[in-house]
Amino acid sequence: MTLALPPVGYDPALERLEIELLLEGVFRHYGFDFRSYAYASLRRRVWKRIEAEGLSTVSALQERVLHDPDVMNQLLLDLSVNVTAMFRDPSFHAAFRRLVVPVLRTYPFIRVWHAGCSTGEEVYSMAIILEEEGLYERARIYATDINEIVLQQAKAGIFPLNRMQEYTENYIRAGGTRSFSEYYTAKYDGALFSPALLRNVVFAQHNLVTDRSFSEFNVILCRNVLIYFDKELQQRVHGLFYDSLATFGVLCLGSKESLKFSKYEDCFEVLSQTDKIYRKVK
Ligand SMILES: C[S@@+](CC[C@H](N)C(=O)[O-])C[C@H]1O[C@@H](n2cnc3c(N)ncnc32)[C@H](O)[C@@H]1O
């Protein structure tokens, strides 16, 4: 992403006030709550949208966003950072096979929640692992995101063909044993993933900031989402995950995220510090 910044001489205190007012307006008018997202990254993304709209102040963007839902949708895409990949961090996926799959084998029924699943690459990766481990039939995967547009893409299951080389390497490093190309068919410049991988998947819009939990899960994956939240909001969401996990349920975070210094830290044991895999123990 290009680094967008305010014009030279823009008063930082005024800028902060305007950004707070913009986020307050977005929340009160549209219900999307970005008020506790980490400021530095949020600020860059707001300026990116200001530039793209040909504007020069945050207040001008606020005016446009509040009166034009299309601009709100654009801002939502900017703020929600949808970068993702299949078998992202292969070592995490290998650790999942090694440490979590044996536990899941002992369950008659497995409920998995991908919170902040973006365009679904993470969900297809998990479906492939569960399929290969013979656990897919007893699994239900709930895949949620704040952003309806990425969920539509996830359901379609078409990913750029030019990323298949990278994904094949990730798949092998993650412990995959088949030929990765079994899972998709090439169509023009897209790779269409087998719709059968979605037979036990439910996609739904869910906002981690404002919505409640909807079930008892054996596994929750929320990777590379909390990094955009401030400490207080991260902790609130840790609480949401704690409440949503069954006893001995597993929580998987992104490589730059952790439960360290969270008040929920003691409720979990660490299964892998490097790969950020935790198990609820009390
Ligand atoms: C960087 S992507 C991570 C995707 C995937 N989990 C991964 O690790 O590759 C972050 C996702 O979190 C979603 N997100 C951001 N804020 C959210 C919120 N409040 N509730 C639910 N999802 C949110 C974004 O829409 C985006 O799709």
Keywords:
282 residues; alpha/beta; Rossmann fold; 2 domains; 7-stranded mixed β-sheet; 3-stranded antiparallel β-sheet; 10 strands; 41% helix; globular; binds S-adenosylmethionine
Descriptive report:
By secondary structure, the protein is α/β, with parallel strands linked by helices. It folds into 2 domains: 12-80, no CATH class; 90-280, Rossmann fold (3-Layer(aba) Sandwich). Helices cover 41% and strands 19% of the residues. The chain is built from 9 helices and 10 strands. The protein has helices at 12-30, 39-52, 58-67, 69-80, 90-104, 121-132, 148-156, 164-173, 231-244, and strands spanning 110-115, 139-145, 158-160, 184-187, 190-193, 201-205, 217-222, 245-253, 268-272, 277-280. A 7-stranded mixed sheet has the order 6-2-1-7-8-10-9. A 3-stranded antiparallel sheet has the order 3-5-4. A hairpin with a 4-residue loop joins strand 9 and strand 10. Helix 1 packs parallel to helix 3 (58-67). The radius of gyration is 20 Å and the shape is globular. It starts with 11 loop residues before the first helix and ends with a strand. The mean pLDDT is 95. The structure holds S-adenosylmethionine. S-adenosylmethionine is lined by residues 80-84, 88, 116-118, 122, 145-147, 150, 207-209, 223-225, 254.
